[in-house]
Write a structure and sequence with these properties.
Elements (H helix, E strand, L loop, with lengths): L5 H32 L7 E4 H11 L9 E5 L5 E4 L1 H17 L6 E11 L2 E9 L4 H6 L18 H11 L3 E3 L9 E6 L2
Parallel strand pairs: 2-4
Antiparallel strand pairs: 1-3, 4-5, 5-7, 6-7
């Protein structure tokens, strides 16, 4: 059709980005529908939570406007029964969202903890900024509110993440103190 101007190129690039966002949203809607309907495929196997968490952290892209590092601390080896790919994606989506909420620091910490929950051996991931991580890690999950996955943005990744965590027998909680840059994930261990 011939050469295009710089303005036309910019408009075409924006249209392509918008199509990509729409396509991703349709994919998320389909995945959420399958999770809600109980038809989502899960490849259950023994999963090393530490390895899955490391892969999730490594997959989180850089923020375009600032540097916010992700640090994992604590934790003994922990295995659970689940789908490593789905769990990794859920944890990565959660970390991406929480990292966007960091305001008072340049770091988000994921603290791995062990204990019991609902009478079963469980692994807990306390996620927060350096100023709040100790309170989040010390909180009793039974006293925490359910995580609000509808708190902003146009995607469905947090809703999907919560359902994947719950499909693994776990729970996703809001942190104490009303901060948006935090969460508590509880997953049953083998």
């Amino acid at each position: 059709a011939g050469p295009i101007s710089d303005q036309q190129r910019k408009l075409l690039e924006e249209a392509e980005k918008s199509c990509g966002r729409l396509s991703a949203l349709v994919t998320e809607m389909s995945d959420l529908s399958a999770l809600e309907g109980g038809t989502a495929a899960f490849n259950s196997a023994t999963v090393d939570l530490g390895a899955v968490l490391t892969e999730a952290v490594d997959s989180v892209p850089a923020l375009p406007d600032r540097e916010v590092g992700l640090t994992v601390d604590g934790g003994a080896p922990a295995s659970l029964s689940g789908d490593a790919t789905r769990l990794r994606s859920a944890l990565a989506a959660l970390l991406v969202a929480l990292r966007r909420e960091v305001v008072s620091s340049d770091r988000l910490i994921v603290r791995r903890l062990s204990g019991e929950f609902d009478g079963r051996a469980a692994s807990r991931l306390a996620i927060g900024e350096p100023e709040t991580i100790d309170a989040i890690a010390a909180a009793d999950p039974a006293s925490l509110d359910r995580f609000d996955e509808w708190r902003g943005g146009s995607g469905l990744s947090l809703a999907i993440a919560r359902r994947v965590i719950e499909r693994h027998g776990g729970k996703l909680y809001a942190p104490p103190g009303g901060t948006n840059a935090g969460a508590v994930v509880v997953l049953p261990r083998l």
